[in-house]
Known about the structure:
The protein is mainly β. It is 12% helix and 34% strand. The protein is built from six helices and 26 strands. It has helices spanning 111-114, 125-146, 276-280, 424-427, 429-440, 447-454, and strands at residues 7-12, 16-18, 23-30, 37-44, 51-54, 57-60, 65-72, 81-91, 98-107, 169-174, 178-184, 192-198, 211-212, 218-223, 232-238, 241-251, 261-262, 268-274, 286-292, 297-301, 319-321, 327-334, 342-343, 353-354, 361-368, 374-377. The strands form seven sheets. The chain has a five-stranded mixed beta sheet, with no helix packed on it. It has a four-stranded antiparallel beta sheet with strand order 1-3-7-5, with no helix packed on it. It has a four-stranded antiparallel beta sheet with strand order 13-14-15-16, with no helix packed on it. A hairpin with a 5-residue loop joins strand 21 and strand 22.
Amino acid sequence: MATSPPTLTLSADQSEVKAGGTILLTAVLTHDSPEPAEYALSVRGVDAAWATLLPPTLSVAAGGQATATLLLAPPVGAPAADLVLTVRAAGDGANAAAEARFSVRLTSTTAAATGKSRAKRRLGWQQFALIAVGVLLIAGTVGIFAVRRRHVAPVPQRTAECASESTKVVDLYSDDATTAIRISDGDASDVRILRAEPADTLSPLFSSLLSLSPDGTHLVYVTAGNEALDNAHLWSLDVANPAQRQELASVPRGLWLVRPSWSPDNKQIAFLRFNDQQAAASQSQLELWVAEIGGQARKVAAPPELRPDGFYGSTTQPLCWAQDNQSVIFASVTRTSSPTDQGTRATGSGQTSAVTTDPGVPRQIAVDIHSGATEELAFPLTASDAAPAAPAAPAGGVNCGLPVFSQNDPAWRSVIMQSSGDTIGRFGCAVTATAMLLNYYGAIVTPVQLNTCLGAK
């Protein structure tokens, strides 16, 4: 029976890229043959150093399809041009080859533009959409918080106490089918792909959980069964050999949305877990865990100062290792409950717990990873310190350093929104985005507190 030659298609969500930026293309190969085959992929029309194919070889089942991802990353300084990329899939044996073309406009960037800091995480279109919806609610809610709005000096990390971090930058780039883990220098140059994973297990929302070792040789990333981090796995990979990965820990439920922290000796990872049973008993809701490369993850301690609300909206590193390699440091705030600020938090018990709005006194706590003993460190700030000024937009741009909340945060994803009867996790994008913006302008409020304050109307 005659078979059709293979076909190859190229698609992308954009057709323009700036020098120093990236564009992600998807190549789909259809193989109408009664036998499986392998196809080697290659790219023409651009400098080979600009293009990365993942994977470089496609194995296609009989009569099936296979997908590859092409990352195009023209370097800073590349001249403007209209590029025509050609991707070729060369079949093995008697299998025919297939080609596809895609036009990309390359625009140059000025030295001033390329010199801007890119340390802040860029907001994707989904987040902008959520923020846009949140703006609609601000007019009706900002007045509610005007009389209760309080300022507190930020909780800075004492750099003398925390171990140093890598100067490299890691982030995620997804086309909704595949998510690529990228690494680059601090100025966004020398971009390369370390590894690609299915987007249904490595969501681009997990970029805040990427963590490079201080020497830049190893990376920890997280995959999960859904965006609520159920069935989560912490993986370690060697940056020089990213094809191999090692599982550090498996967390069926409750991995907390705090970036794992590497020890100064590049051998251990500290991370946080949510404990439903302790939360139901009004005890500490978070546990500190340590995973050793090549070893087993173990629980260190659950000190009462380790509270979930101590990490919401933090713009500094909320978890770090001390230079002595023996203790983990986190910022803590002693808060007081207000009888007027009551809300329901999903604890599995149906109980109502106090929602606190008093920012309290900031402290730093060190936890010994061997004994679990805690020590309060000297901290210069007091609650009476001057309030920080509202963040100002830089000249020629907009300051988008928003605190990041997830509507699927375990602390509130099951909370019922009083105006709709649905949970925040399912339909709470607007209230979550509004809470982010209110925090940006100085209000101390989480999505569950905003939900409580809005009431039933």
